[in-house]
Design a protein that fits this description.
Helix content: 25-40%
Distance between the termini: 44 Å
Radius of gyration: 24 Å
Strand content: 15-25%
Number of helices: 8
Order of helices and strands: HHHEEHHEEHHEEEEEH
Structural class: alpha+beta
Oligomer: single chain
Shape: flat
Length: about 260
């Protein structure tokens, strides 16, 4: 959230706000005391960086990182890793919302737009099998001048038929009806989408020392175990991330299922 708020306004705006706050402190406090907060925070960050660089403290930026080499295939129905990569089609749906307004995230109507987006993905996640929803990754793209900053979500679906059915469902329809009613009053709001229907053996991915993102952030819904005494009597989500150090996942073409490990 801090990164999103930081990118919501131009850097000059944040610098001016910081300068104004520092000026107020100088006016109401003795100069030495007024300078203490900024100097203390700067020294604290420099010390933290130095300790990480020297290996004396753990690097906090690695907290969400999956060390090693990983790939994210579409798992079999029972959660098994497939024999060959990219054996199933995948639909990539990119959707975005922007506020072309000086207030950015706080522009009129943008919160409601975000709520409808959130409702749609909540519905997709709650009914994964019905809609063929695999998962999503979301991020914030910052325009150079601060205008046109956008939220972008990359989502993954099992087929174009699943996505089409979802687009005609009640949740998406509610959002679309709201958009048609509000666009005339809020023409600073923008939406976009792109759709890619990728056939089997036409996609692959690899992640090396990277945090889960893209297909690496998707999940597979595993049905309840029927084994007596199982620790998993209910449905559960599992990650598709698979160790990619073996020959089976070594190259781009093998991950696409276009060549066997022995033919590399």
């Amino acid at each position: 959230m801090s990164a999103i708020l930081g990118a919501n306004f131009a850097i000059t705006t944040w610098l001016l706000a910081g300068a104004a706050l520092q000026s107020i402190l100088v006016l109401v406090l003795p100069t030495r005391i007024a300078l203490l907060p900024a100097v203390f925070l700067l020294l604290l960050r420099l010390m933290s960086t130095a300790l990480v660089q020297a290996g004396l403290v753990r690097n906090p930026y690695l907290a969400m990182t999956r060390r090693g080499k990983w790939t994210a295939p579409i798992l079999e129905q029972d959660g098994r890793v497939p024999e060959k990569g990219a054996g199933k089609e995948v639909v990539v749906f990119v959707v975005g919302a922007s506020a072309n307004h000086p207030l950015g995230l706080f522009a009129p109507g943008f919160r409601q737009l975000g709520d409808y987006f959130q409702n749609m993905f909540n519905e997709a996640e709650s009914n994964r099998e019905k809609w063929g929803f695999l998962g999503k990754s979301s991020g914030f793209t910052a325009a150079q001048d601060g205008a046109g900053n956008a939220f972008i979500t990359i989502s993954y679906w099992r087929s174009i038929e699943h996505l089409h059915a979802f687009a005609h469902g009640d949740t998406h329809r509610a959002g679309w009806d709201w958009w048609n009613r509000t666009i005339k009053q809020h023409d600073h709001l923008g939406i976009m989408h792109e759709t890619f229907a990728v056939p089997a053996n036409g996609w692959e991915n690899i992640y090396v020392n990277f945090h889960p993102i893209g297909m690496g952030e998707t999940s597979h819904l595993l049905p309840p175990s029927e084994k007596e005494g199982s620790n998993f009597p209910a449905e559960r989500l599992i990650s598709p991330l698979t160790d990619a150090r073996s020959a089976k996942w070594r190259s781009m073409f093998s991950r696409m299922g276009r060549m066997s490990a022995t033919s590399e």
